[in-house]
Prior knowledge:
This protein is of the alpha/beta class. It has helices at 9-12, 18-26, 66-78, 92-104, 119-127, 144-154, 175-188, 246-257, 262-273, 277-303, 328-337, 369-387, and strands spanning 32-33, 87-90, 110-115, 131-138, 141-142, 158-161, 191-195, 220-225, 237-241, 317-321, 340-341, 343-344, 359-363. The relative contact order is 0.17. The model has no long low-confidence stretch (mean pLDDT 93). Residues 41-376 form the Aminotransferase class I/classII large domain.
Amino acid sequence: MDISHLLNSSVSNMEPSLVRELLHYSQQPNIISLAGGLPDDALMPAYPDVNQLLDSRQYGASDGEAVLQQHIAQILAGRGLDRQKAVLVTNGSQQGLDIVSRSVLDNSATILTEQPTYLAACQVFRLQGANIQGVTSDEFGMSVKDFEEKLEEYKPKAVYMIPNFQNPSGHCYSLERRKEIASLLEKKNVLLIEDDPYGELCYEEIKLPPISSMLKTSSWVYLGSFSKVLWPGLRVGYMACDEELMPYFEKVKQATDLHTNRLAQMMVSHFLGSGQYLLHIAKLKAVYKKKRDAMADALLKYLGNQISYRIPAGGMFFWVRLPEGVSSMLVMERALQEQVLVLPGKPFFSSDHMLDDAYLRLNFTRVNEEDLDRAIYTLSLVVKGLSVD
Ligand code: PMP
């Protein structure tokens, strides 16, 4: 049956997310997966007894459960974001991306992103028909020069950034870079969409303010999530923003799904209120730091000077540049034949003219150290095999 006439142009042209397509392989036994951006199952707290959590089974408020909003406001205040009057609880930060896109982007809008960037954010922006322009990025985030030029050239409506331990590159904006970006945003009055699901997973002694907290006259949206530190399957995230924007976002949330699942919100709220949260984060950081170091050791031991990468100061990923001429797509296919799942870097490049097939994104938080070592050893055989093909 031909259904092409039924679909609108955004959906009929939509590409699937490679990450989600590959996720089903990671559930197969015998596969070691370095592909997802997933927490270690062993570190996830047990669910609380759900019957104790909610005294009403009715519909809830669109902006979220008040008790959870208060916990989130406290977390945000700790990050220097205490100006927001309200917090909107979302169905993961992915829904925050959807809400802000629907609210501000349309067919004629340009949005700037880092290059490479989180591919599912681009999926959302494309669904709105927006024109995505990538800005070249280095270890400290967006190049200020290229950002300034693209602001001039495209007159974008918004800019999407992941300043802390970015997905996929692991980069973290320095304080200077944050200040430079903030000052340009103020000058041009462009909306900042700051996505920060990894900020708490920091393995070095650094504490950097969100760029949103540095803005005085231009608009910002800050997205957070409990997916990387608690339970991704519960789908609880949040957004904070300028007071003026919030009523519009709330209406879009109403129209989208009425409200986020109340039980899921109360489960998160219960954990935040239990006094265990900070201890839990400290434990995640200690375990993930060890795993990060184990991956760095394995990369050095098995692939040595064949590849290049930086050791990320936080987050969940190594972003590895392959030897000249080795395709990341081919590495992914061959490694899968050897029961190791890795993610090719190509889909993370949002602008066609910047497509780069030379990178892999490797997750170090999900698997144990023994499997990490085995996976990198296997990967090294695949890469060496392709280097001499
Ligand atoms: N933003 C970034 C940068 C991410 O890496 C992810 C998850 N991979 C999300 C948003 C979405 O997270 P969630 O919807 O689970 O909160």
